[in-house]
Design goal:
five-stranded antiparallel sheet, elongated, 247 residues, 17 strands, 29% helix, alpha/beta, OB fold (Dihydrolipoamide Acetyltransferase, E2P)
Length: 247
């Protein structure tokens, strides 16, 4: 039997996942957790399961907080409505990342992926896991931003560019610029390469919002929506930039 724990603060979602997992007779649910505090206590006092299904945004924080305080060797399948946490997930033994609403075929695929790790579970380290999952991860399609005490979902297709200012990375839309939790290096890894390109150390731009490209005396890009600062293409990026434009 595969001992399994569900971390989910919404009871209907927890019950639905439990029903879906009942289709896998090899899975035995040994615990259900609803908060970060409860999770830290549970993992501190109980034998860790082989498999964990975990939502990310809980009522008292992020489920990442549990595993940063109580490291686990169990494999984690994250279940969430937001895909902006993929990079953080890969650092914490994640083997899959299911976006809600969870589909039967996606859940089945995630369970099968877990089974493929079992034979080597004693020798496969977290770094090996990250390398394996990195090959399969999907691109970022939406970003969760905080506005005061509210949260807002921004689709990446609405984002003209990402830019760094005072060590904070912002995303620019037609409405305004929103601060994010990403670094530009992280974004380079998870944004759709055909749409987004890093023109310099400060900017990643979306090809859908390019208005004009100046080539003299240096390459400069005018975007439909952008901060006041001009966007220039680094000299060492010009060749790649031109290839990206026609790619």
């Amino acid at each position: 039997m595969i001992k399994t724990v569900i971390i989910e603060d919404e009871k209907p979602a927890s019950r639905k996942l439990e029903r879906m997992l009942s289709n896998f007779p090899e899975i035995e649910i040994v615990g259900k957790i609803e908060s970060v505090e409860e999770g830290i206590n549970w993992f501190s006092e109980n034998e860790h399961p082989q498999l964990i299904f975990s939502d990310i945004v809980l009522g008292d924080g992020l489920s990442f907080d549990i595993f940063e305080k109580v490291p686990t060797k169990g494999f984690i399948i994250y279940t969430t409505a937001f895909d902006q946490y993929t990079l953080k997930a890969f650092k914490l033994n994640s083997i899959d990342y299911l976006l809600k609403p969870i589909l039967e075929e996606d859940l089945s695929g995630a369970v099968e992926k877990f089974k493929s790790f079992i034979p080597a579970s004693n020798t496969t380290g977290s770094e090996d896991i990250k390398q394996l999952i990195r090959k399969e991860r999907s691109t970022l399609s939406r970003v969760l931003v905080k506005i005061g005490y509210n949260l807002k979902i921004v689709q990446t297709q609405e984002i003209s560019c990402f830019f760094s200012e005072n060590k904070i990375v912002y995303l620019q839309t037609g409405e305004r610029a929103y601060p994010s939790d990403f670094t530009l290096d992280e974004l380079e890894d998870i944004l759709e390469e055909k749409k987004f390109f890093r023109v310099n150390r400060q900017f990643i731009i979306n090809s859908d919002y390019i208005k004009n490209i100046h080539t003299s005396p240096y390459y400069k890009v005018d975007m439909e929506f952008q901060p006041l600062e001009e966007i220039t293409v680094s000299r060492d990026r010009v060749k790649d930039f031109k290839e990206w434009l026609v790619g």
